[in-house]
Amino acid sequence: MYSWENPDDRLSIAQMNSELQHAQLELLSAHCATHQLRLRFSADDLARFGQRDILRKSVQSAAALSEYYSSIEKKIPAAETASEPLTRLTETQIVEAVAQVSAYFHQQREHYLTSAVPLTNHQKARMWPFFSADLLDRVRIVELHGACVPNPPFFAEARALGFVNLPEFPHMHSLTFLDIIVFNEALTDRALFHGLVHAVQFDVLGRDRYAELFVRSFVHTKLHFSVPLEAHAFALESKFVSTPSNRFSVEDQVRLWIEQSRY
């Protein structure tokens, strides 16, 4: 059993958590794909007309994963696994929340604009196979060097309504406000790629539509990482990191998810 007191174990624990994060991103991508499948097709139709070998493999994989993670969950102290209270919002509350989030994106964009700088030629060269030259020319970045983006002021109201799993902005590597990417931590290719994916989503969807999709998904899933906009960014980031030589268009991927109603 690992121990934090052993330096070699600390390295192994760090590696373990890195691999756990990678596994979670892959699971989120699969969760989003399965959710869209569930929305479009009934279980009866899948059972009757779905390709048998794919169905069996999918069922076996899901069952094995469920068994594995359930065995881990049983070992987590009960106090740490307390579930979030069931929360319901009216349509009026959701519309108000969307307006708040959309306005926040604009306000933060204006706040950080004065200190934002363009991407360097080196950064553009690293990202150009995946993003358009126009986007890379327009995006600006801010490195806070020890400071952090604070949580939005409306988080207090959201927590009072029962949303306890809100993302902690000060602990996030980066945050994208339209075409401004703000880095709480050191700027890396991986973090820049992730922020640029959100910039593409903002560019294609527009600020108000992005805010609406994010809020409605978060109200439904109660988890930041399960929001399809975020899950897609992590999935594309994982693809970039695992096979950086495999070039693809992020904008094409974003438009595909929009066409398939996956956001």
Protein architecture, described:
It is built from eleven helices and four strands; from the N terminus they run H-H-H-H-E-H-H-E-H-E-E-H-H-H-H. The protein is mostly helical. The chain folds into two domains: 74 residues; 169 residues, no CATH class. The protein has a four-stranded mixed sheet. A hairpin with a 2-residue loop joins strand 3 and strand 4. Helix 4 packs across helix 9 and helix 8 crosses helix 9. The termini are far apart.
- Gross morphology is globular
- Total number of β-strand segments? 4
Kindly give the count of domains: 2
Main β sheet profile: 4 strands, mixed
Calculate the terminal CA-CA distance, rounded to whole Å: 41 Å
pLDDT under 50 segments (min length 5)?
A: none
SSE order: HHHHEHHEHEEHHHH
Number of helices: 11
In spatial order, strands of the major sheet run 1-2-4-3
Helix content: 55-70%
Determine the mean pLDDT.
88
Tell me the β content: 5-15%
Rg of Cα set: 20 Å
Q: Which secondary-structure class do the elements indicate?
A: mainly alpha
